[in-house]
Amino acid sequence: KKAEIIADKHYLIDEVDPRLYGSFIEQLGRAVYEGIYQPGSPFADEEGFRKDVIDLVREMKVPVVRYPGGNFVSGFRWEDSVGPREERPARAELAWQVIETNAFGLNEFASWAKKADTNVMMAVNLGTRGPEEARNLLEYCNFPGGTYYSDLRKKHGYEKPHDIKLWCLGNEMDGPWQMGHKTAHEYGRTAEETGRLMKMLDPTIETVVCGSSGPTMPTFGAWEDEVLSTCYDQVDYMSLHQYYSNAANDTPDFLAGSVGMDEFISSVVSILDSVKAKKRGKKKINLSFDEWNVWYHSHEADEKLEKWGKAPHQLEDIYNFEDALLVGSLLITLLRHADRVKIACLAQLVNVIAPIMTSDTGAWRQTIFYPFAYTSTYGRGTVLNTLVKGPVYDSKTYGDAPYLDAVLVWKEENEELTLFAVNKDLEEDMEIHCDLRQFAGYTITEHLVLTNDDLKAVNTEAQPDTVAPAKGNTVSLKDGELSGYLTKHSWNMIRMK
Ligand code: AHR
Q1: Residues above pLDDT 70, as percent of the chain
Q2: What does the CA dihedral 321, 322, 324, 327 come to, rounded to 10 degrees?
Q3: Which of 24, 30, 65, 71 should be mutated for ligand 1, with most atoms under 8 A from CB?
Q4: Exposed, middle or buried, 47 (CB in 10 Å: 0-12/13-18/19+)?
Q5: What is the CA(70)–ligand 1 centre distance, in A?
Q6: What ranges in 232-256 are assigned the alpha helix state H?
Q7: Best mutation site among 24, 26, 245 for ligand 1, i.e. most ligand atoms within 8 A of its Cβ?
């Protein structure tokens, strides 16, 4: 099969907001305990943070991490998680049916984020709590001093404000599984008042209002419209969440998930812009795709879990090679929408549906780590409006799906151009051509390929490199013509300079 990739250096989508490469740590399973925090471990530093995990997070270049949930946040009493450890209460955590000891809380997370070279994206509880507790939390985190909550932070040993700039107004408030879930009207009003109070206290923050928990929710569309119509003035972004599954073992359909993400983004953009038009608004509401990943491998094991354990092995998906292909494609999709998707969080970061896994004896990279880390590292700059003219296949869930997903990202100041491409064809290589005469003098500096004969191959602690990128040599750039082929079922990164 053949595909033509067409791009023009004057025809741009937008600058990539680095927050597109965000991630997520929820107080859930072994994400915090045994993931980022394990006092007593040989890998732990003086604060109990795992250094091996911090190194891998740095390798992924994650600019922002959402915390502390997720479903967890809708029952979270933030006051439980601060102050002297021995005085912090253990709670029955209803979202995941476990005991939360609160040994790790928000101040520890803020310290961890600094060490991991990242920023905190904090979520407030709008399930069992409301505007008052949210503004108190903001005062604790961001107010310099001289008030009850800012002085309490100082008393707890944190003299300087955490200065958290990005705030989620609740989590998945449309979902019947969510503690304190609401109708669109109820939630729209709560979000409006919470956002208003928070911005009265700290006008420098940005807020993310909850969109639907996914495009298959029965209220999808109507929810976005009513919620945003109610709280437009107080919010800056709307959230999108979507998880992908190959439970049916239909790999072509699974890999077409990027078409699903593309349509989801376009639909939400249309609704947000229609609300703006109805309001004669000046402000464009952008998107925070703050939960996305493959999630299904662990469902069966999770159903058998005993309740009320502490930090159990929960949501521990072991990712295979085809998952990495989809993650690579989803990143391409996010880049192609860089004009409106300003924030995105791979859900999650460590142990819980995560690119990084840990045990008492080490930490290792799951398959999905690689497309994420490389796209995050080199997918920065300006996205070129990349047209892919190539064959499509008929997928069960999404209809026509292209065999080839591709996008070009240009860092003009460094004269670096990077092509990210996924060939989803399970049988055939894909011949590609791309006219790059506008980039005179550029040559290929690196071609990395992630592929494996076994779509279900995984990385384990004993064999951590089964699925890992290797050097590619099937594409050349001569006289401004990029040509060659991308091997069947492969993720590719071609760097040119
Ligand atoms: O990421 C796991 C869960 O998925 C989150 O807690 C929730 O927001 C979503 O349903």
Answers
A1: 100
A2: -170
A3: 71
A4: exposed
A5: 5
A6: 251-255
A7: 26
- Hey, whose CA ends up nearest to atom 4 of ligand 1? 70
Helix axes 131-142, 184-201, angle to 10 degrees: 30
Identify the residues whose C-beta falls under 6 Å from ligand 1.
26, 69-71, 171-172, 213, 291, 347-348
Q: How confident is the model at residue 496 (pLDDT cuts 50, 70, 90)?
A: very high
- Round to whole Å and give the CA distance between 243 and 352: 13
Q: Can you say how many angstroms the Cα of residue 486 is from the centroid of all Cα atoms in its chain?
A: 27
Strands 206-209 and 286-294: unpaired
Strand, helix or coil for residue 239: strand
Which phi and psi (to 5°) does residue 430 adopt? -120, 120
Helix (H, G, I), strand (E, B) or coil at 256: coil
Decide if 489 contacts 423 (C-beta within 8 A).
yes
The per-residue pLDDT for range 91-116, each reduced to its tens digit, is: 999 999 999 999 999 999 999 999 99
Reported ipTM: 0.99
Assess contact for 322 and 274: CB atoms under 8 A.
no
Q: How far apart are CA 331 and CA 372, in angstroms?
A: 7
Predicted confidence at residue 134, as pLDDT, reads 98
Nearest CA to ligand 1 atom 9: 70
Pocket test for ligand 1, best of 28, 172, 349 (most atoms within 8 A of CB): 172
Per-residue pLDDT band at 372 (split at 50, 70, 90):
very high
Alpha helices in 339-378 (DSSP H): 369-378
Measuring from atom 6 of ligand 1, which residue has the nearest CA?
70
At 162, is the pLDDT very low, low, confident or very high (cuts 50, 70, 90)?
very high
Closest-CA residue, ligand 1 atom 7, reads 70
Residue 291 is among the residues annotated as catalytic for this protein: yes
CA of 208 to the centre of ligand 1 (A): 16
Q: Report which of 168, 267, 179 is spatially closest to residue 220, judged by C-alpha positions.
A: 267
Count of C-beta atoms within a 10 Å radius of residue 299: 12
430 Cα–ligand 1 center, Å:
36
What's the pLDDT score for residue 398?
96
Residue entry with tokens 């033509």 = 4
The model's confidence at residue 6, banded by pLDDT at 50, 70 and 90, is: very high
172 in catalytic set = yes
If you measure from the C-alpha of residue 141 to the centroid of ligand 1, how many angstroms do you get, rounded to a whole number? 24
Distance 146 CA to ligand 1 centre (A): 37
Q: What is the pLDDT of residues 19-38, one digit of tens each?
A: 999 999 999 999 999 999 99
193-219 confidence digits (pLDDT tens): 999 999 999 999 999 999 999 999 999
Distance CA 44, CA 58 (A): 16
| From 34, 79, 139, 172, the catalytic residue | 172
